[in-house]
Amino acid sequence: MDNRLLDKIETIFLVNNLQVMHNGIISSVIRKMRFMEDEWGYNPLLLISDYNIELQRIKIMLKFGMREADQTQFNKSARILNVYDHFQRSYAPDVKEAEYGLNLGEGESASQTDDNIYEIFKDGKHIRTEYFTGLFGRLRLVERISGGKPARRIYYDDCGYISMIQHLDEANPEFHPWESYYTTDKRLCIMAKYTFTPDNPAEKNKLRRLTLFDEEGRAVKECASNAELAACCLDELCADPSKLYLIVDESGVLTSAPLAVKRKNVFRCCIVHNIFLTDAYRLDSRPQSYYAHMCEHRNEFDGIIFLTMTERTDFIKKYPGFDPRKAFVIPHPYAYHVDPVDFELRDHKKAIIIARFDDTKQIPHAVGVFKKVVEEVPDAVLEIYGFGFSSVEEKVDASIKELGLENNVKKMGYTDHPVKKMRGAAAFIMTSVVEGMPMTLVESICNGCPVFAYDINYGPADTILDGSTGFLFYKGDGTSLAAQLVKYFMDIEMQRSMSENCYKDARRFSVLRFLERWRAFMESLYSRRRDVVLKETAGENIAASEV
């Protein structure tokens, strides 16, 4: 990547929250940030929209030891910011740690009810409960009691400062009508108001309005959602006219935030991590709820990134007025170094499935397909790894028993080492009805295990080289899949050749190829914004075309 460009551009990845046990979207963001820093020396910002009192602890755990095995561990220099922290100024480097402990007032006594939880009494009345963190022993929450009921909750950040006060309704403690957020110098900076509809779970404590206050205590801005608050934060973060800013919504639900930033030096983009339509096989079906805003405002984006070419093609067909130059394809990479396993160490009559027990994966159907294989290859084995809905698992059990496959089809439970299973098998099977961009296909191919899959939307056709690194079959055509798997099990040289093809094809999913696509994406954005001239910095005009 041209360093002159990187010196002028700030990339901000936008997500709604961060947890230690995170989902695939967060995993992909973490990997991107690591790859860009490791290979380019470039350090994007991860911006989180939802209030998260545990964020500091989560950041520490994800930087210093958690999730390292699956490469979803941040670099120690990774930049992570919460929108609320931005306005509360609690991320400021000059904020000092304030020490807190169990401090009893005159006439007060304490009773420990659980690890790190204490009830405080005065004159025989329960007046508050104090909660401490197990990790550092710091005060995390104080719940004030009035008339025997919780009246308000005071939350403390990881430096011991009051972060938020949640005010509870006297008649119904489940309802918190408003929340007050504070800076480290105890200045009110955000007020959140909520509505409550007891009979509608979706309307319990539904955010109605967020109000921003300036340093003088004046209300300066009202927002209807965390997305609007994130837009206010982004507007401030992108205020330097000497830089270009690339905002990428990764969540799907925050697409309104980058679009609300109207600065000319900002590129507004989003990534489609999941299927954008409710029915992936009907272009006339409506968009998924979390992509509805993106689809409605598609022409306002500078770029939309898809994981597969087939989904990009469907999006363009669905919206013929959309400029195809704004549609990009950047598949997930496979970042591990792979040493080819000795071919003779594979079980040449073993196939595996690694998937959630979910109806969309059609695992009972796969068991039925394998019955046809066993009729021709009696010692063939199918191992199924995964977990999920018990109802689906029961269907799998019933299929195995009904078809008499107890010696051939094995349920193996969840595995922390899917790659090890792929490196010991001859084939990987996927019989899903629909997918987004299944990483298991990429992992299997990169580890020399050819894939047998239905040609579904989306992923298999973009991942598998039919006849070379696997086979594609018409959706639901179990007869053809079984027949080809029989031929494959009976032909060791075919297995050897296809396994070698898989290892060779792994280069297609490399980190360097992934970053090449990101570079092309960024350069395309700049080339279509050559008319944007940034303000003078260091005595010279800097145009996007000069970067």
Summarize it.
With 547 residues, the chain is of the alpha/beta class. It contains 16 helices and 25 strands. The longest helix has 17 residues, at 24-40.
Provide a descriptive summary of the structure in words.
This protein is of the alpha/beta class and 547 residues long. It has three domains: 3-89 and 229-329, Rossmann fold, CATH 3.40.50.2000; 108-227, Outer Surface Protein A, domain 3; 343-509, Glycogen Phosphorylase B (Rossmann fold), CATH 3.40.50.2000. The protein has a ten-stranded antiparallel beta sheet. It has a seven-stranded parallel beta sheet with strand order 3-2-1-14-15-16-17. Strands 20-19-18-21-22-23 form a six-stranded parallel beta sheet, with helices on both faces. Strand 22, helix 13 and strand 23 (470-473) form a beta-alpha-beta unit.
Main beta-sheet annotation: 10 strands, antiparallel
Outline: globular
Q: Structural class, from helix and strand content?
A: alpha/beta
**Helical stretch count?**
16
C-alpha Rg (nearest Å): 27 Å
**From the 3D coordinates, which CATH architecture of the largest domain would you assign?**
3-Layer(aba) Sandwich
Number of strands: 25
Whole-number tally of structural domains? 3
Mean pLDDT: 89
* Cα separation of the termini: 12 Å
Enumerate the strands of the largest sheet in spatial order, edge to edge or round the barrel: 4-5-6-7-8-9-10-11-12-13
Name given to the CATH homologous superfamily of the largest domain: Glycogen Phosphorylase B
- Unreliable segments (pLDDT under 50, ≥5 consecutive)? 533-547
CATH topology of the largest domain: Rossmann fold
